[in-house]
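User: Could you check the structure of this?
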Amino acid sequence: MGIFLWGYVVYSRLDTTLQEWVDALEIWQVYLGLYVLIFASIVVIIAPFLSCFAVYQELSQLLMANAGVHLFSFFVLLLGSAVLLENTTTGSGIVSSIRESMMNLIMQSQNEYATNTLNMIQESIGCCGADGPNDYLSLRKALPTECRDTVTGNAFFYGCADEVTWFLEDKSRWTTNIAISIAALEMLISVLSVILVRALQKEEKFNYNR
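Assistant: Sure, the predicted structure tokens are below.
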């Protein structure tokens, strides 16, 4: 499970489309949750080796340490999921960041880099401006061709702040679902380790009384 999460998160981080949009819009906070989950997945990968060793040795101290490691990974997985959702979902702070970046690009649309960036985002995702075509009109800018549907010729209704956020939300949903599922398993292992410690302590006490 840990290897699967690690692979999926690393794949998401290296997604070229995601990288292009994050770099273009300067919303690098999207990566924070992914980095936390990469760290968490490494802990999850290592933890089973400690579990096997602790169970084999049947030492209470090792079993408690094992419970602590799994509990730690549980909290880190939840933290990573929370950070990722905070920076990729509708209603989160990422929307205003995307909106601000888009407005800055529109205001600098006389610059070739800004124009190319706007065209790339608007054409590839099918959006217009930060909140819609009115962003161009309010700034007295010409509505670019990339803002229009190639079939109907009508301007895209939704702005890029919404469309990009929906794209990020769709990406993060699968990641957080996997992470939370593994977190639940980590908590279960932690509880089972504590139960095993209690059982060993009772057995030791019973043997001592004999």
